[in-house]
Amino acid sequence: MDQDHATDTLTEWVTAVTRELGLEGSAESSPTVDTISELAASVADGVGNTAAPITTHLVRLAAGRADDPAVATRDYAQKITHLAEGWSSDQERGAPANDQSNRA
Q: What confidence tens digit (pLDDT) does each residue in 29-74 have?
């Protein structure tokens, strides 16, 4: 399957799922789908394939509570991608992204 076909299939799938769940307009924007797809790939590479779906779910759950879910999705995905990329490093696990003691 070529990349354009995969992208079209993903777009159609997300549109169908959001309709079925009554979430039209909340998840199918291209930047949000791209952000979540990139997050899933980073988590799959850094942590493992089985961690990707639950991680994306948790990020969207948290973002849904924010005033601007699209911005929150991007911000949370960036934080969690950083965490996933360093997951195999003991040092990264010792300092979670949300550890308040590491903030200035």
A: 777 888 999 999 999 999 999 999 999 999 999 998 999 988 999 9
Residue 10 DSSP SS3: helix
Q: What span, in angstroms and rounded, lies between the C-alpha atoms of 7 and 100?
A: 38
Domain that holds residue 79: 29-99
Residue 87 included in any domain = yes
Give the integer Cα–Cα distance in Å for 99 and 67.
23
pTM for the whole thing?
A: 0.72
Number of compact structural domains in the chain: 1
Res 24: pLDDT: 76
Can you spell out the DSSP letters for 28-96? Answer: --HHHHHHHHHHHHHHHHHT-TTHHHHHHHHHHHHHHTSSSHHHHHHHHHHHHHHHHHTTTSHHHHHS-
Give which of 48, 44, 47 is closest to 92, Cα–Cα.
Answer: 47
In a domain, 90, yes or no: yes
Which three-class secondary structure state does DSSP give residue 103? Answer: coil
